[in-house]
Every structure is written in C-alpha cells, then in structure tokens.
Amino acid sequence: MLQRIKNALSTRWNTLMVKAENVWHTNTVHELIILDDIFPYALSSFRIAEYSGYLQNIPTAVVYSSATAFGYVKETRPLTEVIAEYAVQHPLLARRVVPFHPLRKLRGRLGYVMFLHNAYGFLEVLEANKLPFVMQLFPGGNFRLNEAESDRQLARVCGSPCFRYIITTQNIIRDYLVAKGFCRPEQISCVYGLVQPLGLLLGSGVARPAYPAGKATLDVCFVAGKYMPEGRDKGYDLFVAAAKLLAPQFPALRFHVVGSFSETDIPVDELGERITFYGSRPTAWFVDFYARMDAIVSPNRSFVLAPGAFDGFPTGCCVEAGAAGVAVFCTDDLGQNGGFFTDGEDIVLLAAEAADVARKLAPYLAEPGRLRALGRATRGRMARLYDEQARLADRLAVINAQLNAPAPPEKRQPGSYHA
Q: CA torsion 92→93→96→97, rounded to 10°?
C-alpha cells in the first residue's frame, strides 16, 4: 500500500513538473528530439553509440526515453538509475536524457525514432506536436516482410503528415518499401551497418592465444538473445546439434554460449564440461572473451520467430565477434550479403542445417592456421564496413539534410508511392 502511494505521488509530481516546464521553457527549441523506449540501457550498445553521437554533435539534441521496453529485457531498475549509470561514462550528455511524458510539449525542428514499433508508438505524440521526423528502420521491432499488421503500421507511419525520411541498413528493406509503395526512393537512404562501438574490440590490444601453442583448446561460440523455445530463430538448436557432431572428431574443441540460454533449453549432457554458459553480458566483457574465441557460429533462420520476421546480415553479435578477429560462420537465407563479404575469404556462409554447420566448420578446425587467417580477414573487413565514425557521419548527413530541407508538398495517401 505504501509503495502504491509513493508511486502515485511520484506520478503526480512528474506531471506537475512537466506542465510547469511547458510554461517555463517556451523559448527552448531542440534541433533534434530523439524518442525511444529503452535508452540508455547499456546492453543496447548500438543505441548508446548512435544516440551519444547525436548528443555530442548536436548541442541542443535531447533524448526522451519512455523505458517501456525495460520489462522486455528484464531491467528492473527505474529509468533514473539507468540514466545515472549512463552518466558515469557520459556525464555531460546524460543531462539531455529525460524521462518521456506524454504531456510534454515537443519543441523541436526534427524528431528521430528507431525501429517501426517506436515510430508507430510515438506517432500520435509526433503529430500532436507537428514534429517532422526521420525513422531508422531495422529488422525487428514489429517490422516484418509481407505481414499484414507490420504493413498497416508502416502505411500509417509513412502516411503521416510528419513523416520525412527513412534510413535503412539492408537493401532488402529499401526494396520492400519502394515495391510496396510506402515511400519514394528519394525518401530512403540505405546505409550498410549499424553505429556500433567496435573501438574496444578493434583496438583492444589483447593478445589472441593460438591453438595449440598458445592454448590447449579450440573455442567456438554462439552469441544471441533467446526469443523463442530452443532459440530456433537464432539457430541455437543447430549450434547444439552441430556441436554434438563435431565433438567426437576434435577432442580439443570447446563450446561457449552467451545470451539468455542454459543447459535446460536443449539437453547438452553428452557435451559435459565442454560447453559453458555465460548469460547475457555487456560489450566491454567481450573484449577478453572474444580474444579466446576462434569462431562464432550464427545459423539464424528467417520467418521462424514470426511470419515475416528476419535478422539483418550479419547479426550484430557476428559483427562484434568479427571485429575482434573471430572467424564468422553464419547463414544468409535472404541473400542480404550483396557482395559486402566474400564467402570463404572473410566469412563462411552456412545452410540452416546442423550437418552443413559441422561440414563447413570441420576443415577449419582441422587446420587451426587456416581458421586464424579467416579470423584476421574477417576483422579487416569489419573494420572497413563498420567504422563507427563513418556510419555515424552517414546518419548525421541525413539528419542535417532534413533540418535544411524545404517544407514538403502536400501528403499523398499511404501506399500511393511507386517507383
């Protein structure tokens, strides 16, 4: 009872403060207003990197965070504590990370949202404040291919009088938006790669011991979140099945699982002490972890988590591992590669079958020097494709262009644009 009273008083106080700010700060206009549901949650490292970049480069930018996704990631702390944690690394920027309140007047020149679910969820607020916005559209976050509800939300967002522009990271998304008439080609920029904080991994300087002279084991990892039983969308079941095929052939082989998986998801008794589970970990932890890994296996499958659901290529976990010099073995069932990587030179592409995972991995395990060479090539490719400052600059260019763009013509009906 006492806690409910405290919560009610806190809510009342926050509402009064927001109403007061609406009156006091009438002359405050932000160049960029970012609306998000989880920032500055530390495990969403690409958000930390991208939004921090905007706050650093745009002095009047602000982030309003609803924290509504905290429950999804099992974060039990209040938003104020998470902001305080962010302030340890970013003391000046944290002052411009503010709890979202639906009554707050959004006085800004441009809004920015990431993922379809955020664009759709904040749309009424954006429209009520007549704030034009840019959406960055990734796989996930309610965006699915040829799925009715996803298309309905996309049509609503792109049909808004406040909609201005979309940034995508995959050609398949750009082509989908244009083919279905959600927006015009000139309203889309396809920027390959996320703004990921790879500096720790690329420039760690941590020695990478090599099997068999520098360490006694060959180490293969699987890194992903669990979103469904057996992690079938991420291919965890295939990883375990392939491990059981490979273990008898290579006595030095060890398996490592990072993410919300445990030995209870799929029986791993026959692997015994050769498989280790670590739970979910922040980016900084991976510096030492990846220095010990020889390969990462990511046999993810499209359209398994839900109709039309898919991952980007390669997954963020593969990018981080590859940046640290870990050889990447992954699937690309939608053909998203588009020539960015070369199969067998800086990446190894898999079919979503345990037998193929084992067949592709085995020759590299048999020749550890070849596996190390693949990891070095992967690292070099990741460093070129995922340069953090270059990817941030790509997005800042879009934001600045929209800040300087003339008023758009009268809005057409959603879904009426065609190439």
A: -130
* Model confidence, pTM: 0.83
Distance CA(303)–CA(90), nearest Å, equals 38
DSSP H or E segment with residue 272: none
Look at residues 115, 122, 116 and name the one whose alpha carbon lies nearest to residue 100: 122
Decide the pairing of beta strands 108-114 and 30-36.
parallel
Q: Is residue 111 within 8 Å of residue 123, measured between CB atoms?
A: no
Say if CB 267 and CB 230 are below 8 A apart: no
Ordered by where they begin, the domains of the chain are 2-196+390-403 (3.40.50.2000), 199-385 (3.40.50.2000)
Token digits of residue 178: 């244009």
Q: Where are the alpha helices (DSSP H) in 65-198?
A: 79-89, 116-121, 123-128, 148-158, 171-179
The structure tokens listed for 215 are 């360490």
| Pairing label, strands 133-137, 97-99 | unpaired
Q: ω before 229 within 30° of 0 (cis)?
A: no
Residue 398 CA, distance from chain mean position: 19
CB 296 within 8 A of CB 318: yes
The closest of 390, 384, 394 to 202, measured between CA atoms, is 384
* Nearest alpha carbon to residue 134 among 408, 419, 417, 416: 408
Query: How far are the Cα atoms of 11, 35, 166, 255, 366 from residue 363, in angstroms, in the given order?
Result: 61, 48, 43, 17, 5
pLDDT in tens, 116-164: 999 999 999 999 999 999 999 999 899 999 999 999 999 999 999 999 9
